[in-house]
Structures are given as structure tokens and as C-alpha cells.
Amino acid sequence: MSTLTVPAQVPSAAEDCEQLRKAFSGWGTNEELIISILAHRNAAQRKSIRQTYAETYKEDLLKVLDKELTNDFERVVKLWTLDPAERDAFLANEATKKWTSSNQVLVEIACARSPQELLLARQAYHARFKKSLEEDVAHHTTGDFRKLLVPLVSSYRYDGDEANMTLAKTEAKILHENILKKAYSHEDLIRILATRSKAQINATLNRYKNEFGQDINKDLKADPKDEFLAILRATVKCLTCPEKYFGKVLRLAINKRGTDEDGLTRVVVTRAEVDMQVIKEVFYKRNTVPLDHAIAKDTRGDYEKMLLALTGHRDA
Amino acid sequence: MVDVVVKSFSGFGVDENSLISILGKWDSEEAKNFRKRTTKFFIQDERNFEKWVAEQLDQLKREFLRFQGAIVLWTMHPWERDARLIHDAMSDEPKSYNVLVEIGCTRSSDELLGARRAYHSLYDCSIEEDVASLVIGVEKKLFIALVSSYRYEGPKVHEETAKSEAKTLSTAVKNAAKKHPLEDEDVVRILSIRSKLHLKSVFKHYKEISGDYMEEDVKAYKSLKHTVECLSTPHTYFIKVLEEAINPDANEKVKEGLTRVIVTRADVDMKVIKDEYHTKNGATLIDKIGSIANGNFKDFLLTLLARGG
């Protein structure tokens, strides 16, 4: 469930634009005003604001934000203002350009989004970067990572709820056999994770647990230092329990000495309108600290205020 | 106009000539409107296309047996059409893998996407899943990759990359005796993710490097050959399909190629296909079909062929 709060009476896009324009004019920028508007508008409203701003002031709102804001605050506001498909395209592109084997952003986009959202991200990618997402992923990744990531970003999974139990049994066996012989990048293993519907995968992994005694992710922890296994575990989690996955990303982002702002920003912005409420609950259960307290403790200024606004903190 | 078609689809006997000229001449907007308005035959699918009501489709096939499936194929939404063609190509014996390659490589990125959507609606699973379970053999990886592609369609091509990829392909082909080219990940990757414009450049460099056209070099590997042909010179491929379909010794499945190519290319590149056919064979496609096909089927095909000049 979303943690975004939108006022009962939403001003028109024209009114919002006028206010934003005021926020940018004069010396410095009125960040509070920006947060009070943008952090409380949903994707459709933000899109309308961007269009109206461009028509009225002949400037792209994003370029203005780029000029007026700085650092983490700028990043969170810009990412938030982008439409979800463009945002995913942007994050994916960034991830390919500075790709390292510990980078899980591509897995998040390929697996935690709905099949339709992934499709829209791929379309946005063409429009913005003049090539396909698959090409960039193939270009910047190597070996087993490429073998897994290209099919993952190319998938268009069936989105129905039905699962075939016989298939679940067969494929649980295939997964287990490959894991036993450490053939983690075997084409059958990858094919199952990259083409099956989420409902089917859930059925298969439940079967796996019943049949072989443990969660597949426990078996995939055979070598804790192996980064490919880490990506496989992330794939499984994003496909089956994204809230837990994102809860963990948040925990690691906030607990590190210093904060991984990129991770924190990314999760808040991409999940605020999706399942942030559930993620908060998962976070609290695991850490006995509410997410907003953790955020408030570790961040400051306008960046902190924006994050708190997006995660539904009352006072923001 | 719509009423005539509805009437004829409802089994009330039909003035075939009217039917042929109405259906054969309508444009995609009229076709879409027809599907949207005749809720008896089509329902709006949640994935944004008008889907044939299954029982009506079966009845129509029987009703229009004389038309050899042409009417049915023609009235379908293109997404449903491609999804069904792919499904049948993999499921019915003998399997016609070339149809899979044909659709994966000659449709635009959005058309292929549409076919994938329709496939979900019709068969409750993704194309990739069915390919993985129904296709046996070395082509599986290539086919999965081809149907999953969403190729960039803009003008940008990186020449240096095209050159180096041509070299990769050429090396893989030279090594074919030791390792089947379709087992080579790079071959599959290049052919399935690169834009068509980029691949044109790759194939051009290939010829410069190896001396021959790639489709000639990989003649022995049918699916690979079809892939290269469909990506570089689709009309050459389609003409071959037509020639084989028109051959009196052709089996039923191969014969279906005639209807399929004419229906699916009528509004795309049929003119080029007709012109090249004429150049290659001396006779025109229209004359050839006029001489081997009969009755309503013939008339319908000829009407489709006449579209777009």
C-alpha cells in the first residue's frame, strides 16, 4: 500500500505550477514549498504538473530542479518527479554505466516491477537512450551476470494467478539438482527464473521448500562471498517477497557508517506509491525501530523532510 | 456494410463477392471498428485488443472452409493473429519453426510486444514459457531470445561495434563444425538484441570480412538462415515461402504459407514482394495465384494482393 498522502482538495496543475515558479524565483529556493507540493501529488498529477509547467513557462521542470537544487535533495526530488517508467529507465541506465557485480538495481527493476511496468520502462529506455535496455545490459555486464540479467530484463511474464502444480514439482527438482551440483548459471535455472509467472515461481519455490527442507535462498547461501549467488538470491526475493527485499535494502542503507543515500532514495521513491506501507511494517518488525525514526536519525535537512513526506510521516 | 459481414459470419448464407470486396478492401481503422462493434464475435480483452470469441471462431472456420482460413486470419486483430500463428507453429506437427522466426524478426517491436500480450490472454502463459517447453533442440535459446526482444528502432548505429560483431559472427560461423553457431551465446545475443538497422550494418561488414552473405554461409542451419534472412532481406524470405507454398507438391502446412504471407504482408511490404517476385520469376504473383487457386479463396487473395497498388 502507498504511503503517499495527497490533499483532499488538490490544486489544479496550473496553480501548482504557479507556486513552484514562486519557489524558484528570487534568491535561493523555497524547498519547503517544493516539498509541500511535489511530495503530495501522485504520478498522474506530477505528470500533469510537468506538462503544464512546460507549456506555461517553456521550460522543463526537471531542468529547473536541476538548476535550483543540489545533492541528495535534488536527486530525490528529480527522481520523484519523473514518471515511473522514465525513472526506471534512468535508474537502469545509471546501473549499467556504473555496473559492479554487487549492483542489484537491474534485478529490482526486472523483477520487483509488474510485467507491464517493466515493458513501459523498456519503451521509455528506447525513447531516452536511443537503444534498448537489453543492449546496454549486455554491453556492460559479463559472464554469468550477463547470462542472468539479459533474460531478466527481456521478460514479459504472464500476470495471472494460476499455477500448475505438476510444473512446480518438476521445476523445483530442476532447481534443486542444479544447485546441488553448483550449476548456478545453468540455462534451465535461469530460464525458470526469467520466464515463469510470479504465481508459478511462488508455487515452485513453495514446493521446493516442502520437498527439500529449506528455502531456496538458504541453499543459495552456500558461499556467502559469491556475488553471483547474491544476485540470484535478490532475484528470488524481488520475485516473491519484494517488501522483505526492500526492507533489507533500507536497513543496510541506513545502518552503514554514513548512509547509502542512493539506496535509501531509490527505495523510497520507487515504492512510496506501491507498497511502502508494507515495507514500513516489515522494517519495524525486523528492526523494532519505525522507519521514520531511522530516517530522521540518519539524514537531515530538506532531504530528510522529503523522505519523511513520501513515507507518510504525519508532520511533513 | 458491417451488417453484411455480420450476416455472413452468422451462417445465414452469404453473397461471397460482396464479402470479399468489403473485407478485402477495408483499412485497419474499419477493421478495428468492426471488431469493436460486433460484440457477438469479439470481446474487448483487458490487454487492449479485440479478441475473437472462441466458439464463434470455430464456427467461422467451418463456415468459411472454402476460404482456407484467409477470412478468419484477416479479420483477427494482428496481435491475436501473430499469437495464434506462433502457438500453432510450435504445437502442431510438423512444427514450423520458420513461422516463429518469421514473426519474431519481421514484426516491429511494438507489434511483437502486442503478440506477446495477446498470447498471455489466449494461452494463459508467456510465449517464452511455451517455447521453452515445446521446442526441442539447439534452436530453443535463439527462439526464446527472438520472441523476447524489444529492439530499438531509431537511426543510431555504432559502426565500430557493428564491425566487431560482424567479426564475432564470422568467427562463429567458421567454427561451426566444432561448435554449432546457435550454441554460441554471442551469436544469439547479437541477432536477438541489436536493432535491425544495426544488423544491416553488421551483415554488410560480414560480407566484407568473409566474402559471402551470411545467409549463404549458414545455409546448413535452417533456423539461423531464416533469422538472418528475415532480419536483412525479409522480402526475399517471403518470396521463398510463397514459392514453396505454391509448389504443387507442398504439404498442408507449407501451403498455409500462401495465406499467411498475403494476409500478414498485405499492408506492409506486399508491393515490394510482388515486384521482386516478378523480377525473380518472370511471371507476376497475381497471375500465378490466379492460375493455381480456385473460387472464393482465389478472389479473396487477389483482392488482398491488389491493396496498396
TrEMBL record, chain A:
One example GO MF annotation: calcium ion binding
**Top-rank taxon:** Eukaryota
Can you name a GO cellular component term? cytoplasm
Q: Residues that bind Ca(2+) 1, according to the entry?
A: F24, G26, G28, E68, I254, K256, G258, A296, T299, E304
Residues that bind Ca(2+) 3: D298
Q: Which InterPro entries match?
A: Annexin (IPR001464), Annexin_repeat (IPR018502), Annexin_repeat_CS (IPR018252), Annexin_sf (IPR037104), AnnexinD_plant (IPR009118)
Metal-binding as a keyword of this entry, yes or no, is yes
Q: Name one Pfam family in it.
A: Annexin
* GO terms for biological process, alphabetical: response to cold; response to heat; response to salt stress; response to water deprivation
Alphabetized UniProt keyword annotations? Annexin, Calcium, Calcium/phospholipid-binding, Metal-binding, Repeat
Q: Please name the PANTHER family in this protein's record.
A: ANNEXIN (PTHR10502), ANNEXIN D1 (PTHR10502:SF104)
Domain remark text: A pair of annexin repeats may form one binding site for calcium and phospholipid.
Q: Which family does it belong to?
A: Belongs to the annexin family.
Record protein name field: Annexin
Q: Which organism does this sequence originate in?
A: Actinidia rufa
Automatic annotation (TrEMBL), chain B:
GO cellular component assignments: cytoplasm; plasma membrane
| SUPFAM superfamilies, A to Z | Annexin (SSF47874)
Signal peptide location in the record?
none
GO terms of biological process kind = response to cold; response to heat; response to salt stress; response to water deprivation
Name the keywords, alphabetized: Annexin, Calcium, Calcium/phospholipid-binding, Metal-binding, Repeat
Flavoprotein: present as a keyword of the record? no
Protein's UniProt keywords contain tRNA-binding: no
Q: Which GO terms label this protein's molecular function in UniProt?
A: calcium ion binding; calcium-dependent phospholipid binding; phosphatidylserine binding
Record's protein name: Annexin 4
